[in-house]
Write a structure and sequence with these properties.
By secondary structure, the protein is mainly α. The protein is 48% helix and 0% strand. The protein has a domain of 30 residues.
Amino acid sequence: MLALLPFGMPGWAEALIIVVIGLLIFGRRLPDVGRSLGRSIVEFKRGVRGLQDEIESESRHGGGGQLPDDPGQPRSETSKPAAKAEPPTGGESTV
């Protein structure tokens, strides 16, 4: 790591210069970037809150059952797999 930074870590003066250059280059776009970042964070929090509310409501109302392929759930008559078709034996000919 020392080979990458032969002069040491940048101090507060260098950091300030980098920030000023960044503001000069991206100054007009920074408010838009901040605004869109804020909207993204708010939308993410809404989505997480919606998922939490959905999970809590499902747990309060009993969950609504298990998945049909769950081994703990007995299969109903309509969910039985179809019988396999046997391939023709080829020994008998129909002329």
